[in-house]
């Protein structure tokens, strides 16, 4: 039997009060919580009916009621409203996600230091998103009448949010419509494709609606652009001075300076990391600073479609077989530690005699 609107309000009040206080709920508390313009006796009768129908339970005689599993199910399916995250809550979530990313950065940084110590060459390590990163979903959360939070999730599972303060009021229904438009017209596009998608919408959307769309899409583009800027961790740069080719500071200084300010776009792996090891020798390097050097790299799997790269830079006379084996083993270890790929027990680089 379908519940009347008043009984739905009473059930909602009992559940929300019980969730808040963990105490059986009486008719007086329901009247205050639900602001019902009826007598306490009417509320008691309705609560008794809800108990008879299996939505409420009375743990003790003369005590208030608590929700049953059936009551919770109706609440979740039909009565539960959307929860609006506060600014403080979104900040705490962002801080927690940021800590996770910092922990990942520490692991990668330590791996680079270990490789530099092991090989006695300068080492670098970085993470890279998939070749094609797009926005998977937009969510818009109303904070106040003139402000909302935009949440952007990419297909690499990166989540960012931003608070927008407007000079006019915006309603829940307007945000829902805007969210539908964003998820219909702007998901699945790369950074390079989003301006064209925005231009197409400009011909159809009204002035204020387009301004809101442009605000959120521009934020999405900032997120994708941020993912394209890959931080490079370097370690052991001074190791160069231990090798005859670089004992002259005049010879070593340009390469040391390059590594000290390394940018992912200038590294040999200008494209996405390849599986296994990769060796770039002398003039094959894209950067002038690396023209007299050898670079050995190996990729690792971060999961979720993300890859990473770890490598060393040294003179062209490096023992490429040995360095490749060491880096391949480190890369597989990183994949096992922070990604999804397992490290096989019989890997060829673990066999006795491999150096």
Explain what you see:
There is one protein chain. With 355 residues, the protein is an alpha+beta fold. The model is unreliable at 269-274 and 340-355 (pLDDT under 50). The strands form 3 sheets. It has a 5-stranded antiparallel β-sheet with strand order 7-3-10-9-8, covered by helices on one side. It has 10 helices and 10 strands. Helix 1 (5-21) crosses helix 3. The protein has helices at 5-21, 27-34, 40-52, 69-79, 87-119, 172-185, 194-202, 207-228, 249-260, 320-338; strands spanning 56-57, 66-67, 123-128, 135-144, 147-154, 159-165, 232-235, 277-281, 293-303, 306-315. Strand 9 and strand 10 form a beta hairpin.
What structural keywords apply?
elongated; five-stranded antiparallel beta sheet; about 20% strand; alpha+beta; disordered C terminus; three-stranded antiparallel beta sheet; single chain
Task: Set out the fold topology.
Layout: H1 5-21, H2 27-34, H3 40-52, E1 56-57, E2 66-67, H4 69-79, H5 87-119, E3 123-128, E4 135-144, E5 147-154, E6 159-165, H6 172-185, H7 194-202, H8 207-228, E7 232-235, H9 249-260, E8 277-281, E9 293-303, E10 306-315, H10 320-338
Antiparallel strand pairs: 1-2, 3-7, 3-10, 4-5, 5-6, 8-9, 9-10
Helix pairs in contact: 1-2, 1-3, 1-4, 2-3, 5-10, 7-8
Q: What's the story with the biggest beta sheet?
A: 5 strands, antiparallel
Mean pLDDT, nearest integer?
80
Number of helices: 10
Q: Tell me the strand percentage band.
A: 15-25%
Summarize the structure.
The chain is of the alpha+beta class.
């Amino acid at each position: 039997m379908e519940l009347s609107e008043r009984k739905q309000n009473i059930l909602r009040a009992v559940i929300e009060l019980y969730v808040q206080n963990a105490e059986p709920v009486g008719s007086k508390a329901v009247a205050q919580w639900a602001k019902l313009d009826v007598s306490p006796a009417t509320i008691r009768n309705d609560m008794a009916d809800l108990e008879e129908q299996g939505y409420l339970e009375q743990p003790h005689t003369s005590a208030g009621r608590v929700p049953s599993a059936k009551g919770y199910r109706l609440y979740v399916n039909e009565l539960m409203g959307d929860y609006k995250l506060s600014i403080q809550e979104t900040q705490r979530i962002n801080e927690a996600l940021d800590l996770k990313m910092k922990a990942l950065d520490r692991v990668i940084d330590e791996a680079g230091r270990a490789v530099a110590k092991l090989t006695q060459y300068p080492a670098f390590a970085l993470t890279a998103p998939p070749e094609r990163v797009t926005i998977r979903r937009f969510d818009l959360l109303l904070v106040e009448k003139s402000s909302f939070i935009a949440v952007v999730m990419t297909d690499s599972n990166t989540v960012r949010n931003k608070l927008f303060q407007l000079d006019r009021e915006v309603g829940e229904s307007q945000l829902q419509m805007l969210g539908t438009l964003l998820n219909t017209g702007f998901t699945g596009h790369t950074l390079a494709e989003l301006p064209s998608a925005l231009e197409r919408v400009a011909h159809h959307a009204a002035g204020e609606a387009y301004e809101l769309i442009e605000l959120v899409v521009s934020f999405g583009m900032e997120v994708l652009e941020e993912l394209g800027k890959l931080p490079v961790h370097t370690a052991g740069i001074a190791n160069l001075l231990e090798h005859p080719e670089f004992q002259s500071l005049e010879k070593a200084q340009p390469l040391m300076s390059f590594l000290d300010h390394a940018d992912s776009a200038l590294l040999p792996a200008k494209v996405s990391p390849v599986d296994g090891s990769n060796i770039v020798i002398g003039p094959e390097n894209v950067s002038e600073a690396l023209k007299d050097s050898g670079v050995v790299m190996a990729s690792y799997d971060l999961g979720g479609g993300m890859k990473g790269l770890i490598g060393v830079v040294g003179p062209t006379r490096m023992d490429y077989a040995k360095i490749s084996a060491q880096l391949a083993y480190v890369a597989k270890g990183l994949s096992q530690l922070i990604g999804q790929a397992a490290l096989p027990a019989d890997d060829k680089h673990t066999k006795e005699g491999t150096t």
